[in-house]
Design goal:
Blueprint: E1 8-12, H1 15-25, E2 29-33, E3 54-55, E4 61-62, H2 68-83, E5 86-89, H3 95-107, E6 134-137, H4 145-152, H5 160-187, H6 196-214, E7 219-229, E8 242-250, E9 253-254, H7 263-274, E10 277-290, H8 298-309, H9 313-325, H10 341-355, H11 399-415, E11 420-432, E12 437-449, E13 473-485, H12 494-504, H13 512-521, E14 525-527, E15 533-535, H14 537-549, H15 551-554, H16 556-570, H17 576-597, H18 600-604, E16 606-611, E17 618-624, E18 627-632, E19 641-642, E20 650-654, H19 659-662, E21 665-670, E22 677-681, E23 690-691
Parallel strand pairs: 1-2, 1-5, 5-6
Antiparallel strand pairs: 3-4, 7-8, 7-13, 8-9, 8-12, 10-11, 10-13, 11-12, 14-15, 16-17, 17-18, 18-19, 20-21, 21-22, 22-23
Helix pairs in contact: 3-5, 5-16, 5-17, 6-13, 6-14, 8-11, 8-12, 9-11
The protein binds one DNA strand of 25 nucleotides through helix 3, helix 5, helix 6, strand 17 and strand 18.
Length: about 700
DNA sequence: CAGTGAGCGAGCTTCCGCTTGACTT
């Protein structure tokens, strides 16, 4: 019988979480962490029979090993387990968490201990030398004292269906990733990689790049009029009498997107409009309620930190981790927008105290998690104590940390505040010239009640129009045609890529930040000076190959389908290795086929526009040790080669430091370490001018080493 | 800063998702 005075050992995934829980529970409990997964497929040595650490002919049986990194911590857990009266596995309630609990049982040899649910292998009964403590599984979704206490009274057994869904995920990623990567080694270069997630991300970037390359810029014009109301009485102070309206229709024909294409036509309209009579054709007024945004998940935090604080996903997660470790925010890797009851109660109290009861909504506001793939093991990202306002919190000198906290705090408080009310006015104006009838439009908007906007500012344009009514006569003080150019689609950056990946159900909160790193480290992608993500020639080559021959892997539908399969495994309705078999057999056949069919040459050579100046054959783009180069297609008969002109690095711009005196020019360079683009001086090292941004915009901060 | 290439196929080191530090640029 277990001794009464023995403590219970609780194992969670994160050491910070362990510390917090320990402080709730006090004596009687030891809380330790697993530091994530404790077992995994082997990385280097494999037996050819159990390819990649998976026994393909034996129902894809995985050959798990304990990574060197996990060994030390596991022996610590083992020691604590032997002393404990009960072992409580409290990893997260999702696929990976359930699997961690199961792996802990395996790695700590707990399976012969009296696991509450069943002991399959009755032959190995634990030796009588030491008694077998209870082994239990508990789950909770928020780190609060009542939630933990509640969980402790409701232990359950391991859900093997959920574990099997994770095994299926793991095995599929290994098989697809390793076989595809090796295909690339054979056809392009050793050390390259491909996988379900990184290849889909690369495809997004490459397709966007194609759209940008195919984009043809067009010029167009929009026409607007500055108008004044002809007043009989004096206008009220503070309300401007002048406003601007944009031309919308000509003789009842709407102007097609993007606008008027010919300059002559635009000029003619301006001339004609200048002489027209303007009057108000209609006024529509309405009040619109605007709801606050849901509290942060990992994905939306990264997006906002990028847009508002200019932090990369990686830096955002680093800062969030620091805040989490200080106990200031809840867990930062989450896909859930749910909030603990207590946190909402506190938020409402704070809102009422600081802003008044008008800002407190009648009921709690709950947010449905949008992502279909969400597993919701955690809460949304929020301050652990809403009364720790950004003003009261000192960031110990770290300004960015403080800013990120302020962002998280505001988003959370705002999400429990009342809706904002906006008054919107839409005015239609007609203008009649001798020849034509024109229609113009303008919109006004102002805030009637700010609600959550008090805390969470949104680009909320306020346009106040004069008091207008139908048939009011107007006077045009100016009619102008403005020239515009259509813009190509923007390249992805951290924020927009993470957003799209999440929408497609590709990747998880714990991996979003590392996806960018992977494809940059593989040199598939580079960061531009504007910090957006641009595929390199190598990235385009790899993507071409994967898309052409292994479309399934980068098919956005594929991830959705396979996720559904994992869910059915988790529900116990499908057998995991049968799902894997159905995927792997055709996939592997295709790999074998393409290994034979696709030649190295076909994989890497691309036609070019150039002609060989020695023999007249067309030149082709080839892939060598040092990147791309032009070679004669008549090789080996003709061995003519040429360099591919590198994009010009020296800009036609004088160096802001020495340009006027010594004639230095601004040069685009890349840092050795991270290959980030910066601007330097052509006379370096004599002149050490350097800047992250293009110098013409402003004198930017000097680079630090 | 110049230099890069075929094909047999041995031998490299590749996947994704959980977690933190220990490591360079």
């Amino acid at each position: 019988m277990p001794a009464k005075n023995k403590t219970s050992l609780i194992i969670v995934e994160s050491p910070t979480k362990a510390r917090t829980i320990s402080s709730f529970l006090g004596k009687g409990y030891t809380v330790l962490s697993s530091y994530g997964h404790v077992r995994d497929l082997p990385t280097n040595k494999f037996d050819p029979k159990t390819r990649f650490g998976i026994d393909i002919n034996n129902n894809f049986e995985p050959q798990y090993v304990i990574p060197a990194k996990a060994k030390e911590n596991l022996s610590r857990l083992q020691k604590a387990a032997k002393k404990a009266g009960a072992i409580i596995l409290a990893s997260d309630e999702d696929r990976e968490g359930e699997s961690i609990a199961w792996h802990l049982i395996q790695a700590l040899n707990l399976e012969t201990w009296n696991m509450k649910h069943e002991i399959e292998d009755k032959k190995h009964v634990s030796s009588s030398k030491f008694y077998a403590p209870r082994v239990e599984r508990i789950v909770f979704h928020e780190i609060t004292k009542p939630a933990i206490e509640q969980a402790l009274t409701h232990p359950r057994s391991i859900n093997m269906d959920l574990v099997n869904a994770q095994q299926a995920r793991r095995v599929l990623d290994r098989l697809a990733g390793y076989e595809l990567s090796q295909f690339l080694w054979h056809k392009i270069k050793y050390g390259l990689s491909a996988g379900r997630v990184q290849s889909a991300a690369l495809r997004l970037l490459c397709e966007r790049e194609q759209q940008i390359n195919a984009f043809k810029q067009t010029q167009y014009y929009t026409i607007s009029a500055k108008l004044q109301k002809l007043q009989k009485t004096k206008p009220k102070l503070q309300i401007p009498n002048e406003f601007t309206a944009e031309l919308n229709r000509i003789n009842n024909e709407p102007i097609t997107e993007p606008g008027i294409l010919e300059k002559q036509k635009a000029d003619d309209i301006v001339t004609d409009l200048t002489r027209a009579d303007f009057s108000v054709a209609g006024v529509a007024k309405k009040n619109v309620a605007r709801s606050p945004l849901a509290p942060f998940t990992t994905s939306t935090l990264q997006q906002d930190a990028w847009n508002k604080l200019h932090c990369s996903s990686k830096q955002t997660m680093l800062l969030a981790q620091q805040l989490y470790e200080q106990g200031l925010i809840t867990y930062m890797r989450t896909d859930s927008t749910s909030l603990s009851y207590g946190s909402v109660v506190k938020a409402r109290k704070l809102i009422s105290e600081q802003f008044g009861t008008a800002y407190v909504p009648e009921t709690f506001i709950t947010y449905k998690t949008r992502s279909r793939m969400a597993q919701e093991a955690h809460e949304a990202i929020r301050p652990t104590d809403p009364f720790q306002t950004p003003e009261t919190f000192s960031a110990q000198g770290d300004a960015k940390q403080h800013k990120l906290y302020a962002l998280i705090w505001s988003r959370f408080i705002a999400c429990q505040m009342a809706k904002a009310i906006l008054a919107q006015t839409s005015v239609t104006i007609c203008a009649q010239s001798q020849k034509n009838a024109y229609e113009l439009k303008t919109n006004g908007q102002y805030v009637v009640f700010d609600g959550f906007l008090r805390v969470w500012k949104i680009n909320q344009k306020e346009t106040i129009l004069p008091d207008l009514a139908k048939n009011d006569q107007l006077k045009a003080t100016a009619v102008t045609a403005e020239e515009h150019f259509t813009q190509p689609p923007a390249r992805y950056n951290d924020a927009s890529l993470v957003k799209t990946l999440e929408q497609l159900g590709i990747g998880r909160p714990s991996t979003y930040a590392s996806i960018m790193n992977t494809i940059i480290n593989r040199m598939y992608v580079e960061r531009t000076a504007a910090r957006s993500l641009q595929p390199t020639p190598l990235g385009i080559l790899v993507n071409d190959l994967v898309v052409t021959h292994f479309y399934d892997i980068v098919d956005y539908q594929f991830t959705a389908q396979i996720e559904q399969d994992f869910d059915t495994i988790a529900q116990g309705k499908k057998i995991w290795h049968e799902v894997i078999k159905a995927f792997y057999e055709p996939f592997h056949k295709n790999i074998e086929l393409k290994e034979k069919q696709v030649s190295r040459r076909e994989a890497t050579e691309r036609p070019s526009e150039q002609v060989c100046d020695k023999c007249g054959h067309p030149m082709v783009v080839k892939w060598g040790k040092y990147g791309q180069f032009l070679a004669c297609s008549n090789y080996p008969a003709c061995s003519n080669i040429k360099k591919i002109a590198q994009p010009k690095t020296e800009l036609d711009m004088p160096c802001p430091v020495c340009g006027s005196i010594q004639g230095g020019k601004v040069v685009v360079r890349k840092t050795k370490a991270r290959k980030r683009i910066f601007y330097g001086c052509s006379r370096w090292p004599t002149c050490n001018f350097a800047s992250w941004k293009k110098p013409e915009e402003q004198n930017e901060e000097k680079m630090t080493k």
